What does this fold into?
Amino acid sequence: MAIDPMAGKLVPKDRVENIPALISAYYSLKPDPNNKDEIVSFGTSGHRGNAYKKSFNADHVKAITQAICEYRKENSINGVLYLGKDTHALSTPAQMNALEVFAANEIKVAIAKDDGYTPTPLVSFAIIEHNKHKKEISDGVVITPSHNPPSDGGYKYNPPNGGPADTDITSKIEKRANEILKNELKDVKSIPYEEAIKSSFVSEFDFITPYVKALNEIIDIDAIKEAKIKMAANPLGGTALGVYKKIKEMYELDMDIIDAFVDPTFSFMHLDHDGKVRMDCSSPYAMEGLIELKDRYDIAFGNDVDADRHGIVTPKGGLLNPNHYLSIAIWYLFKHRNWDKRLKVGKTLVSSSMIDRVAKKLGREVYEVPVGFKWFSDGLFSGELGFGGEESAGASFLRKDGSVWTTDKDGIIMTLLSAEILAKTKKDLALIYAEFEKEFGKAYYERIDAPASKKEKEILKNIEPKDIKEKNLGGEEIEHIYARASGNGAKIGGLKITTKNGWVALRPSGTEDIYKIYAESFISSEHLKNIEQDAQMIVKSVFEEHKG
It folds into this structure.
């Protein structure tokens, strides 16, 4: 992976997004419903796109919203729909278009007070709390492209369980939205925004206060306060800003809020590895500004724009590797919470096997699923899982009493948990992970990309264990080959191969002509490279075999 010479540097003026031009493109450019790059496509986290590339424009938002209105009616979802938006420039016009359609379809919608911004976990929290106490069933929408660059937009649907919609739901919404696009939006019901916002169908809602008030039920705020932990929180210009302000005010914590303003150009950021403006709180390049402060605070942390991801900075460790922090969080929670002994540890199949080793020591079963947080939602909701986490720095867990908190990723509780762990253990989190390495071995982990044509990606997506003829990987005997996740039996959309001391997972990209190689070794960095090279040879031989 080539690193841009400007990676880690503040955004130069020539790379600052032109917001007026972007908004103009959102409204003026029309997607071609016959071009697969311009139609609605729900990935692991909703539909995302770019206004200039005609993959996220007003037509997409109207079509998706109408499809959701029809889905709700077909499934008797008749309660209020909680609608959140992030601070990306396209999110406000997209929310306006969505409200025009929701109101015309006579669906009650709750939006943030004073045209504010709402983190993904707060939408999940609101849905779950509502459905605990009301007869009418509620769901939600978050308009966000997550940590993507300023030119991008995104649209996520959360059903009544509060988590990201599963593929059986998104495939229906996607199919119907594309039919609507093809029919030139003739099936879209819409009224003018001024009429929609004043209608009885749109109301304001305080997403922040109930969430912050309840934080003591999941985080030991008193321990953080009593230990006098000095913290720095960076919302990276995103939706967590209002939440951290309320947390600081309500609990009187010693917490400085860094970059405490909203700027849709995100020009205060440091450029990511590829030179793009990307609010990735797990990237050492994007988080350079917070890493520079590590010696001034006991702990520092950041969130991506919709606050469903977390990044943790400590004096000893700098920016913690996401896999390392997941292992620490799981160890701490299952050791220090008085949870049911039957609760499982949820992890995605591309997350570190250090988690498996920690879980085994704790006597907890690991529930391994494909990539995507949606696979954890039902388990968190039902209380089967105590924790669900993925290597891309997204996780959530149960309250102290073992009841559900959110069923979507919650970067805010994960940042506060890091302060609780420090307060209760009196140890830098990097030193806790170092103890894991002494006990369980050192994990060498990497994700790399390799080129693949569209045909090759389709082959890899549908690959089966029987297609693999090789017996060894990285010099070790292959023990297992999976095309379905061991936890829930769902299709991986690729393959995972394991040996005694390593593994590799192979998945095609949904948006680029590449496939992704996730690999880990508990022997050495050289062994890791051998695994990666063997994996590429395995894939090459499979491609060759299917050419005919």
